[in-house]
Amino acid sequence: MKKTFFVFGFLAFVLVSAISFAFGRKYQQQAYILEHEKDLAKEQPSPHDGVGMSTGYFFFANAPGLKLSFRKRVLKIGSAIGYHLQKDDEIYYIESGTGIMKMNNESFPVKAGDAILTRPGSSHGLQQTGKDELVVIINYPVK
Question: Number of H helices and number of E strands within the chain?
Answer without folding.
Answer: 2, 10
